[in-house]
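User: Let's play a game. I give you a shape written as tokens, and you guess the letters that built it. Ready? Here's round one.
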């Protein structure tokens, strides 16, 4: 919850990181969030004298929490709808989340099937269109593999 405190002619706020040092303007504005959760500083102000107190944070709490928070959220994303290059790029963006390594391994195993599936598609009267275009996303590869009876790796989600 964001809070802004106005005492007389003083405005103090937090929950919006101002940098490693507090934001101070003319003894009136006090931006006190100096990123303690990111491992920077924990800052406080004493009023009415306006004394600023700051101590270094003990550790980067967000680095730990974001992994715990991001994994369930990432598992709900529509990974299967992404073309291979975008899936790879997005998984790389979240490489700090352990689950994405199983997503990358699954994607690579599925992509390894593409050359053989493309060849089978090109020779089959069942399929129409370019084999390369038909194998652009995971669902297409899974569908083609299912139709041809080719086993696929289990999904990590």
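Assistant: Ready! My guess for every position:
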């Amino acid at each position: 919850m964001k809070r802004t405190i106005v005492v007389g002619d003083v405005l103090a706020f937090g929950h919006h990181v101002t940098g490693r040092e507090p934001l101070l303007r003319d003894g009136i504005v006090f931006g006190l969030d100096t990123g303690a959760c990111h491992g920077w500083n924990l800052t406080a102000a004493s009023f009415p004298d306006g004394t600023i107190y700051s101590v270094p944070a003990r550790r980067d709490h967000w680095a730990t929490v974001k992994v715990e928070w991001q994994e369930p959220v990432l598992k709900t994303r529509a990974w299967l709808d992404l073309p291979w290059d975008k899936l790879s790029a997005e998984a790389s963006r979240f490489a700090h989340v352990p689950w994405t390594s199983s997503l990358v391994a699954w994607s690579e195993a599925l992509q390894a099937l593409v050359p053989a599936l493309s060849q089978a598609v090109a020779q089959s009267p069942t399929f129409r269109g370019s084999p390369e275009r038909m194998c652009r996303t995971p669902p297409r590869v899974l569908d083609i593999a299912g139709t041809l009876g080719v086993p696929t790796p289990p999904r990590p989600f």
